[in-house]
């Protein structure tokens, strides 16, 4: 109940701002902002669900309504209670995802700048049906960027070994998918998990704790962890 | 579910009968039993992992006197006013739900020949494997003039809970421009950055409520954990407030008088309004009673955390002498998982994986100014040896420091649910 009331008031406030400004964002600027999203959310013609669901056709869709994606209980709950994605609801969600859907696995702090949100929403709008106000945009598929050896990605991990190794992860990361300050690592596609861990191992991603933890895992151990965490229920 | 004494004694008697034959797997009847003493970061984790991973094939009994466990980690944030005492208090209900029998009593003796642990409430508990994770006690006579009898006048607040609340209350009652004195401990001790995070948090709370107050630290060491990070932070946030007197300036030559509330550092007496005495430490008493200590700590084998003195007794966390790992909650949790895997293997034949250890210690210098140090470790025949490590850098941006603090919050949630379920 609290969530509903809250999101309603947010939506009203935001609606006023958008209406008052009477402008839509700049999709070109939005594309740049979308770089923060694309490691989890694909968009465009070849887009698939990855860590997060793909965002094609998001406008007008009920939240948490893709059959092929396993949502957090938090997002499923707000979806079931009727939340639909429109400019104003996306704006509120993007400002602070967890304020709108407590328990969402989306480990993103939010976009605090209203112009950034308008721009990225304008960009998203280009990948939905009948986008009003925005000219038809060429779909641009974004893949997860990496140059990892395909042989490493192809390694099949042993989830049982992964379960043992996972005790090193669960000192910080919560196995139920909860996240505050430390992101959720459950139910990721195995490939994304492997890519992320190797990025830490090679010190391409910055966090020193993760560089250290990933640094001592070999490719089989990373594959084992990916296999284990991909199966964990929240 | 926790057991009251009657139920517990009943089940113990039954278990004693069943377990009279000590060979475990070979016996083919009855379940092997692991007794864990101490429900902190080491003991609770070991109990939970053995119960969870053996899926009922091992009886796990945890002996812990407190019904509410207050984490030492984050207790400085309570002192700094950034956490409530309830934020750092945890009960054992969910651990019981994951298959651990939790008994609230003191373990007062270990009979290594009979393989039993005796309890303050009377009776004894038989074990096949005994895991001791008792934390620390203080070395008597370590600080001249101070004894445990003086802990109300001059709190240590190095076991969290009522001592933390007492210290906090004393800080809040300090007169304007008063003096907070700390006696820091010699190495090795629980939580190497702990005293200095505490100084930071005391300075933070005084800066808000009593900005002309002073902090004096008498330290027997010439340097300390994350020293350059803390000193940079103290200069930035609390300029002119903190006087750290290290070994070079007589910080180790210290005595206190709890009746007069004075502290004398290298011959110079100061009247203190609050005096936080953190004495030299040793393994929690049950380790000594079990006869597995050598000097102040219990030497263990890095491969499985078994003691050098007795292959069926394991010591985790602060109480152990293991090598390079700092005495921290993270370390105890890490050691507990290695130990749980080895104990389970020994009792049920499950697969034993090679030991890997890790540690990270986050400290807070001021709100949203967090720093961290961490390392990975491996077991060698001699000790647990450091493999690789990192430390926060001086001059980091406020964004990095804020992210580090937020990470520590996430870690707190993670480790407490990893320990207690």
TrEMBL record, chain A:
One of its GO terms (molecular function) is electron transfer activity. This is Cytochrome c domain-containing protein. Coiled coil: none annotated. Residues 1-21 form the signal peptide. PROSITE patterns: CYTC (PS51007). Keywords: Electron transport, Heme, Iron, Metal-binding, Signal, Transport. Residues 25-128, 157-233 form the Cytochrome c domain.
UniProtKB/TrEMBL annotation, chain B:
GO terms for molecular function: flavin adenine dinucleotide binding; oxidoreductase activity. Coiled coil: none annotated. Residues 165-279 form the Sulfide dehydrogenase [flavocytochrome c] flavoprotein chain central domain. The keyword Flavoprotein applies. Residues 33-135 form the FAD/NAD(P)-binding domain. InterPro entries: FAD/NAD-bd_sf, FAD/NAD-binding_dom, FAD/NAD-linked_Rdtase_dimer_sf, FCSD_central, FlavoCytC_S_DH_flav-bd, FlavoCytC_S_DH_flav-bd_sf, SQRD, TAT_signal. Keywords: FAD, Flavoprotein. Residues 355-420 form the Flavocytochrome c sulphide dehydrogenase flavin-binding domain. Transmembrane segments: none annotated. This is Cytochrome c. It comes from Roseobacter cerasinus.
